[in-house]
Amino acid sequence: MQTDDLSDIIPKLKEDEIQLVVIGVDFDDAEYGFKEENKDATKAQAVDELGIPRVKSTKPVASYKGFLTLGNPEQYETAMAIDIERYPKIMAATTPSASKFVVRSDMGDATQSTMTMNGEDGQNGSNDGLAAVKTAMTYQVVDTNAPGGKRDVDRDELSKGYEYGRTAVHISESDRNVTTYETTPGLDVVGFVDKNQYERYLDMSRAHLIIGQRGNEKASMALSSFIHALYELDSYAVARLVPKENKEPRTILLAPSIEPDFECLYDIELPFAEDMRSYKFPPLDRVVTVSGKEIKIHRNLPNEDLLDAMSDYVDSMDLSIFGKDDEGAPTEYMPMDETYTPMLHRIHQVIKHRAVFPDAEPPPPYEILTRYSHPPDELVQNAQPALDRVLEAANIKKVPPKARGRRGRKEAPKPLSELDIGALLAQDPKRKHKRIDPRNAIPEFRQLIIQAEEDSAVRDACTQLKNIVFDWIRHSVGNSGYGRALEAIRVMREEMVDMETPAIYNEIMQELRTKLLAGDLGEGRGEMRYHVVTKKLGLIKASDLPGGASDDEVSKWRAAG
User: Of all helices (H) and strands (E), which one includes residue 250?
Assistant: First the structure.
């Protein structure tokens, strides 16, 4: 608090009869030996309230105003048509976006200009030394006669089109209406579905609420009758929605909601067939053998003891009654109206702090923003006995970490015959030079890696497998040989990672890329490099293993040319 001008400020306050109220939280000062006893906690509570985000109230904007129809009112007198209004109920809050600015070099008063709110240059802007960054986009086409092999074209010369296979289908602006699906605004009930038959995973969008037209008692009464009919029959309505003319139609589900002082329909968008993703996974409650037999008791299936222990553990982690209300009674631990978006309010917190203290480090996030990012300690402590029973029932054991750099430490697998395979191979005159047979390349490569005692032996084995892979690619009919080549590359990569020798593998992959781009392995072999990239068989990065490739080298290797 600046005290230099207090002699002038005090007479002015008295002259204008200004009352100065100073609100303090804690004026205790150990240095001066001052401590106030029995302080009122109201001020401290007020400061704590500043750490609770304030939810912004939004003005309701209708996304649809029109009729809710059942049947065609233009053809049938018995059809239903209700004036309704539709408003968003649940919508994801967006975080504020940052703008790009540069520090101006021309700081003179006569030449300084800034960006106004409409995006145009203005002479009366703020003198903060910043200028907004403008974005310019240019369009180029390949032209061998132009400098650099590309020629700039004006946007007006461009036309839109669609890709059909490898063919560009051009549709002019005058014919653009042929791609428009003509629709008229409306909300038409298509049918009804039993409440218990609806699957929750079909919810695909934000939720809206539908009410009768405001000020129209007849519409409100009619909609209330429709809502009560759905509620009493435990049913949902399926409707077709077109919010505006020529907008794409949507299929939505209408669910009734009845409260003591409010009735409405909640709607959620339903997926079309193209929106569904169908996956098949093995069942969790049984094991299906190759012959189709179903096994209910298996070592990979939970037994009754494990199911009971897990059920008790889930019950012990119940959050619905872990909280306490003002009277100390059990209540919900994290109610929805107290669960705030951490990212949104953290950004607001940092912006406000940086605006006041430009050079200071931002404060830690508010406690309420991180409160629900982990289970409460007391709940975890109370549930520990139940968790211990789960670990005991599931026979959980700690697995030691995988050893790195296994060379000289990995014990070769022992055959059932207990014969010394290495000695037998060493006695074979055909194995004198330890050449890898392309017909059995991967097993023999692994055998050589296990027996290798020097780096030269490892490099020789990788070189042999590399030449075999190159030969498979070169003589592949189409992409028929890519599969075994990719498998050999995968095995080589795994072995080099285990032996902590990424340099050998990276050298081979660099050579593979060079030969594929140069066409040394045959014309049209670029697809092979695409498969290597998509299957994540590229260079071993330094972040994964010491001595690996840098991020720039990895990016350059993935580049097309």
Answer: strand 250-259
